[in-house]
Please model this.
Amino acid sequence: MHSGKKKESNSNAEGISLNKYISSTGFCSRRDADKYIEQFRVTINGELATAGMRVSESDKIAIDGEPLKSKNKVKPIYIALNKPVGITSTTDLKDKTNIISFLNYPKRIFPIGRLDKDSDGLIFLTNDGDIVNKILRAANNHEKEYIVTVDKAITPEFITRMSNGIPMLGTITAKCFVKQEGSRKFRIILTQGLNRQIRRMCEHLDYKVKTLTRIRIMNVQLGNLASGKWRYLTPQEIDTINSLVVSSVKTEEASVKQYIPKKKAEPAKPVAQPKQDIASKEKKHKSYNEWRKKKK
Model:
């Protein structure tokens, strides 16, 4: 159990959520921070942290025993990369094709969103967890533009149906801009981020995507950036992005809306079980700390 003092600090209404604090240090995105918390790898003032806790600047946060640096010591990094085909937009270093090892940047950064392994083009990487969450909010209608080639001749019907919505993943894609650029090439601008959306849309119409290149995200163009090369976003580009996301839905509110369906779908009876798991993990955590002290 947490002591009264620790609990009071962690529930401080004037503090910020733990996952937001972790992402603000540039350690990882807020989504990955939630995973670290769920895996019982995060501590607050030496005590095991759980989801929903809040922290203040005076709290000492650590992941796997390593303390996090305060966000005011972290300089924001914003990178535009022309991701080649074959590179996976994941931070999982166990994946040999992960984007972090490919870029080999000297400081900790993570991608904003995803770009399929078999697709190429523009992707952002940063250490700014707040901007990641704002950009990823689908409700913000941030545009992403692609050039796509398919395996056979494009028809007017194809363009019309792609523009007006395709059923996939239990929903219908939003209306979007689609323009033919060649006999087998088209341009498409999306404001959604459904899994493999363009490929699934084409497959529904009996077309197979041969190449898919993202050429723009919001106000940032891929331009003549060579495949596999990267550059820093300009101050002007960053200012424009910030102005575009300034009205974004608060991350915590959007996260609650996002997870409500999952909570409703879960059975009610096993609610007490996680408490037992947490208690067990706390014992292991404390035993591990004691072992470390003895070893020192």
Summary: The CA atoms of residues 86 and 138 lie 26 Å apart. DSSP finds ten helices and 17 strands in the chain.
